[in-house]
Amino acid sequence: MASDTIVDPDFKVPAPERVGEEGKTWSHVIQNLVFTVDHKKLGLMYIGAGLLFFVVAGIMATLIRIQLFFPRSTFLDPDVFNRFFTMHGTAMVFLVGMPMIFGFANYLIPIMIGTRDMAYPRLNAFGFWVFFFSGLLLYFSYFGAPGLYNAGSAPDVGWFAYSPLTAKAFSRGHSTDYWTLSILLGGIGSLATSINILVTTFCLRCKGMTLGRMPLFVWLFVVVAFLVIIALPPLSACQIMLTLDRYLGAKFFDTQAGGDAVLWQHFFWIFGHPEVYILILPGFAIANEIIPVFSRKPIFGYPIMVAATVMIAFISLGVWAHHMFTVGMTSLGNTFFAISTMVIAVPTGIKIFNWLGTMWGGKLHFDLPMVFCLAFLFQFLIAGLTGVMLSVVPFDWQLSDSYFVVAHFHYVLIGALLYTFFAGIYYWYPKAFGRMLNRKLGFWHFWLFTIGFHLTFFPQHISGFLGMPRRIFTYEAGRGWEIWNQLSTIGVIIQIPGILFFVYNLIYSYFKGEEAGDDPWDAWTLEWATTSPPPEYNFEKIPEVRSRRPLWDLKHPDDPDWKFE
Amino acid sequence: MMAVGMTGVHAQGAGADLPTHMVADMFKPLSRPAEMIHETSLLVLVICAVIFFVVAGLLLYIVVRFRKKATDNTQEPPQIYGSTNIELAWTVIPILITVVLILVTSRTIGEVQNAKLPEDALQVRVVGHQWWWEVHYPQYGIITANEIHIPVSSKDPKKARPTELILQSADVIHSFWVPQLAGKTDLIPNRTNKMWVDPYTIGTYFGNCAEYCGTQHANMLLRVIVDTPENFEKWIADQKAPVPPPQTAQEIEGRRLYYANACVNCHTIGDSVSKGIFGPDLTKLMTRQTIGAGVAPLNHENLLSWVRDPQILKVGCLMPNMQLLDNEAEAITAYLETLK
After folding, report:
1. Would you state the pLDDT for residue A24?
2. Which of B188, B195, B311, B315 has the most A C-beta neighbours within 10 Å, making it the best mutation to test the interface with A?
3. What was the ipTM of the complex prediction?
4. Class of residue B149 by CB neighbours under 10 A (exposed 0-12, middle 13-18, buried 19+)
5. Is the distance from CB of B197 to CB of B167 less than 8 angstroms?
6. What is the pLDDT of residues A245-274, one digit of tens each?
7. Which residues are paired to B125 by β-bridges?
8. How far off is chain A from B265, nearest CA to CA, in Å?
9. CB atoms A472 and B208 under 8 Å
10. Is there a domain that residue B93 lies in?
């Protein structure tokens, strides 16, 4: 039988060569990191760097919340506050979300499709280092940006940097330039990685792995890579236009010279809305792997899941102006973008129902990856429904740029995306390091973070209803916002120990965790067919598959999948 | 928390005796466009709530019903790969809901955005500045700042007198948002946007700039003072009335200092040579409730503090510290206090 060829019992695994660990000197470890082109190491480096920036940007968010605890608080100066929310937003999108998704893609795609590395390993390393330096560049602005006028340090124009606030007249010094260059650089890295993902999945699949047998995880990343390649160029273009405006006298966005402020918004959101799906589809990808394994059933409706993903990606290219319902578009324009936005709810709904269908009739194992996925489902449901509310243009005239929007996208990016990241880390950590993450610490993390998360962000829906705009460094007493802000800040204080449990667990389990073995979750995709951690070449022998769940076929020779697909 | 008539922080200025609507709850609309938005929003909220309870309930049911029990054997459950009929069902139902939402939305968009205002509608031109609002009444030739006075309208379409807001910006993008009166509309440089309000209850309505516009975005506050038509006309007449000349020696000295310093470069006072346009018009300064676009109530103490160093009350605002001596600041304050 073909599936028997996954593991060759006579093959001896040669001891992997590990320069850094044998030498055990720091210079070896660093050399090992800097010069590596191994997709697994790069994947872990992406995730590690993402977590590092996550902690920094999270600290900024905490300070923001402390400032908003009392009305008319003087804990932070307005400029400091404005820099914090700009850096928080920019970092969370470009330095946490993007590297984390590429980290998972890098680590898992080659193993899942049964190959030894990404198609272009050196391009892969290049992508990582460009991203990493773009992050350092952004944070260096705290030291480097005062510039000629001594005005500003870190960027303080908000993460979507609406013109003309970014024009020389309103943003002196060089803080905006750091923001622009950092995003331009990061974009190059993302493009490189996306091209790599596409070439890898189209050219390097193992024998028998047709497109229709790829794990959904890989499918979703193919779609994400396409989206990145389509959506990033407008972003890079407008960053270049802005730089031309600022230094070479171009007038694209310079309203004082007849430029167009709204033009920037079109450019930015043509990138910005697909970006939302670039970030959330990898979340779906992780859930697509975890929910079936812990329900002990295959994914419900594989073809329609792929179709729904492609539909989401396609429609997401035509919804950008729903960020602009208040700029004074015609009623026809508003209606068009309302319709396209609402239509996207249909394929998204299909996905939720198919996940429920996967669990229906299964045997649900409440291990940590599954628990985080269940929370993801619940929170993504809320995020999706508040998204529907925001697509209703008249409702959006009230809610746009209010705290309701803040609540909505934090439910998307934390409640959905970050939860699937956590689920993915709990799920694949044993594969990457050979040890299980501690279950008890994991549940402390889960409960503290979940309670804290809802306490932080649910009240923000209400302060939005009560007219609180986003990005204000303070507010008057008596506007009805105090209690909701205070609950929100207390929520952050509860989230922090949750994150500490998580970080401690990552370190503790690396040394003391229970041995995982090759296949601790009794799962079905190819990454579980190799050792934990996998050798540098991933498989001693390139596997051959006959269905979407090669390990199921191997474990159930009497009832293999390929009979039914 | 949603009390109407909560005591404001102010004590003086035109309209200070009106009830205040400080908690700007969008679900308590007091103006026609806000009410149309409110009706649509409620419907959408109900639809979304129903979807939420159905799906979340289903999720909960699945989690309880299909959890692995201690008594279970180790056998795998039946392997189901999908079902075209079921998948079709949960594609069609969301499509139907979406169609309903699209119809409701496009209707309300048209009603609010393309509403035809009567000929005699009051026009107010609002120009956003970093971090205050310039307010023009082109039909009356009045210019003021930050506090917008309009007459109350009526639910009866025959008696209604809505107000049209013409929105422009002098620098960056701002957004005009008074939730109980209407949704928000951006003020964009090089563009003119329009919106309208049609309040049917008197009172002071609170709002904010809703588009991030720089350092003091948070203190770019809005007050719309809705009064009876008679009181509104009285306010108009009062704004047009000439300002009495300063009387005391200190006031006269204050006026001399005002004209001798750079104040005139940025501020306008009536028909005088003070014709600056970068800061708020001061012609009838003392008829306002607040200074600094709502950052503090307008009283002697705050005004003196502002004249001496605006960066104390509103750090980062574009008016610099004029380095005045104590007695100079007091004299200028005394002069400004005659502007009513």
Report:
1. 67
2. B188
3. 0.94
4. buried
5. no
6. 999 999 999 998 999 999 999 999 999 999
7. B136, B166
8. 19
9. yes
10. no
